[in-house]
Amino acid sequence: MEAKREIIFDKLVYSCAFEMHRGYEEFIPEHFLGFQLSGETHAFHSEGNTIIPENTIVFVKKNQLIKTIKYPSKSGKYQFISITLDKEILQQYALENKIAGENLYKSKHKLFFEPDDFLTSYFLSLSPYINKKKEATPKLANLKIREVIELLLQSNPDFKQILFDFSEPYKIDLEEFMNQNYMFNVPIASFARLTGRSLSGFRRDFIKTFDTTPQQWLLSKRLDEAHYLIKHKKQKPVDFYLDLGFENLSHFYSSFKQKFGLTTSEI
Fold it and tell me: Domains (ranges, CATH) in the chain?
């Protein structure tokens, strides 16, 4: 059964599934706050893997790559609510409250968990909109987003530096970034943005760094990792091809044979 993903109002999304569901790789362009109503989410990002258990609130920072696997609870249902805190509303809030983006928060952590009673109550207050018992007008939706900004700032002062950092991603080490994120099957434009480059600048720097194009390098890197997993970890392609960024098995098998001159069963 397909996972249900429904936009309740402009920036509030409700996800529901009744069996294990592998999500797509996603480029996260804006901060968002989420609440695991039931089941759990396994999130994979450049810093490692994170399990989001039931009744957990999670804050996800903007400008990163994440892929997820969704697992229903014992009762058979997976539910997750997320609310986006986009740049426009945060800038408006900062202007109205005279907040300057200074002393920016430098932590490398991608995910923050806030076991806060006020935030938990906030998400529970959204249930009438999910159950369609109440419609959210644009004005009310705006107020709900502002409410959660207030609650975040109340729960942890560090969020001030995170939420109101409006600087653009700066140019980072391309080789290090790509070796950490090659398994994400996202457009080249997303890699470019995350490394602080225009698309043309990314391609130019990439060829200078790796002496090949992004597409050729990504395919070769993923195949080398697949070769290692098959030969040394005795894993089967069906168990990892999606994790390495391949869209289907037939493409993986043909690419593998072309690169190594052998089939996976011959390794």
Answer: 4-163 (2.60.120.810), 174-266 (1.10.10.60)
Element (H, E) at 44: strand 40-45
Residue-wise pLDDT for 199-244, tens only, equals 999 999 999 999 999 999 999 999 999 999 999 999 999 999 999 9
Q: For residues 48 and 133, is the Cβ–Cβ distance under 8 A?
A: no
For the chain, percent of residues with pLDDT exceeding 90: 70
C-alpha 210/C-alpha 124 separation (Å) is 49
Which helix (H) or strand (E) segment holds residue 57: the answer is strand 57-60
Q: What is the pTM of this model?
A: 0.85
d(CA 45, CA 108): 12
The DSSP output letter for 175 is H
* Confidence check: pLDDT of 119 > 60: yes
Q: Please tell me whether residue 247 adopts helix, strand or coil conformation.
A: coil
The closest of 153, 27, 9, 151 to 82, measured between CA atoms, is 9
**CB contact at 8 A, 180 and 194:** no
Single-letter residue type at 159: F
CA nearest 176: which of 137, 199, 210?
210
| CB count in 10 Å sphere of residue 57 | 21
